[in-house]
Design a protein that fits this description.
By secondary structure, the protein is α+β, with helices and mostly antiparallel strands. The chain is built from five helices and five strands. α3 packs across α5.
Length: 251
């Protein structure tokens, strides 16, 4: 009786041990499967984010082109060299001529727009440096979206490095220009004033300074907006692209 009872008890205990092991393995497999699905979900969300972001950028660039008569993709190419820019002008049969074809009011309006954009660019860097989340707001009224995205990267990099670019235009003139359409003008602007890069994290040392320089600028305005005045920066005029030239002379 004792032998039978002991055998029975051992058999029952073995069965119990086997059941517990099976449950543990099943639970482990379930956890592994759940972790894998979660990881795949995170990867999918990240990929979807970048796809949506790219689509939005393409749509906004297209919107820039639609808003400005004569604007094309080649004009929106960021960070090109001066030689590449000049080559692209030639490839597209664009030749900058003497600015005499622009009336005085238009010339002054373009200079004012340029000066304001430069000043606000400096202010945006300072705001970014002080962790002001709205540092780009000051430029949104003046920059087309495609160029704004390019400038956002530059502004963030300068702020991280502690480099503040103070730009103040005192006087400017248009050396040459080309009216692409009633809503788009490419011009070479020569200005005098102060352009001073200061590293606020390194004893305010000046890494770059000049008092006279020239830029190629591309300015446009939304279609059906007939005025070229500084006041319409808030309603339509957009400073689309700017490519710095190589004068770098101090006077």
């Amino acid at each position: 009786m004792g032998s039978t009872g002991g055998g029975s008890g051992g058999s029952t205990g073995g069965s119990g041990t086997s059941s517990g092991s099976s449950y543990s393995d099943s639970s482990s497999n379930s956890n592994t499967g759940g972790d894998l699905r979660f990881l795949l979900l995170i990867i999918g969300i990240i990929l979807l984010y970048f796809v949506i972001k790219k689509v939005i950028l393409i749509l906004r660039e297209t919107n820039d082109i639609v808003k400005v008569d004569g604007l094309d993709n080649w004009i929106l190419t960021p960070n090109v060299t001066i030689s590449s820019f000049n080559s692209t002008l030639k490839d597209n049969n664009v030749k900058l001529m003497d600015e005499n074809k622009l009336d005085d009011e238009l010339r002054q309006s373009l200079i004012n727009t340029y000066a304001k954009a430069q000043f606000n660019y400096s202010e945006a860097i300072r705001r970014c440096f002080t962790n002001n989340s709205g540092y780009l707001d000051i430029l949104k009224q003046q920059l087309g979206h495609t160029f704004l995205v390019t400038m956002k990267t530059e502004i963030k990099n300068k702020a991280i490095a502690g480099v503040v670019d103070d730009v103040m235009v005192n006087h400017g003139s248009i050396i040459s220009a080309k009216v692409i359409s009633p809503d788009l003008i490419i011009a070479k602007v020569q200005v005098s004033g102060s352009d001073n890069e200061v590293n606020v994290l390194s004893h305010f040392n000046s890494s770059f300074k000049r008092k006279r320089w020239a830029d190629y600028v591309i300015l446009g305005r939304e279609q059906k907006n007939s005025e070229w005045k500084f006041s319409i920066l808030f309603t339509g005029l957009i400073f689309i692209s700017m490519v710095r030239t190589i004068i770098n002379k101090q006077v």
